[in-house]
Amino acid sequence: LFADDKEFFTPRKINISYDNGQSWQPVSAREQVLNGNTVNELKFDPISTKAIKFGFDHPHGQVAVSEIECY
């Protein structure tokens, strides 16, 4: 997450959902601590899916993401 606190801000939360074949379901995520300008690791219980969706909860400004990796 890139943050300059002028135009780009660190989100309060990242909502992660996966497609179970019929609808989007939230993952069982552990507590999130998000920081700008560094690596953020989000852990959740294992899932099997063909698609993952990320939603950013932020009150103002924009969110800039440079890379997302899923394992």
Task: Tell me what the structure shows.
The protein has strands at residues 13-19, 24-26, 52-57. It is elongated, with a radius of gyration of 13 Å. With 71 residues, the chain is an all-beta fold. Helices cover 0% and strands 23% of the residues. A 3-stranded antiparallel β-sheet has the order 2-1-3, with no helix packed on it.
Notable traits:
single chain, 71 residues, mainly beta
Concise summary:
The protein has strands at about 15-20, 25, 50-55. The chain is mainly β. The mean pLDDT is about 90.
**Computed structural class:** mainly beta
Radius of gyration equals 13 Å
What is the number of strand segments?
3
Give the neighbour order of strands across the main sheet.
2-1-3
Give a quick account of the main beta sheet: strands, pairing sense, barrel closure.
Answer: 3 strands, antiparallel
Q: Roughly how much helix do the residues carry, as a percent range?
A: under 10%
Averaged pLDDT: 92
- Gross geometry: elongated
Listing every helix as H and every strand as E from the N terminus to the C terminus, the arrangement reads EEE
Continuous helix count: 0
Tell me what portion of residues adopts beta-strand conformation. Answer: 15-25%
State the low-pLDDT regions, or none: none
* Spatial separation of the terminal alpha carbons: 18 Å
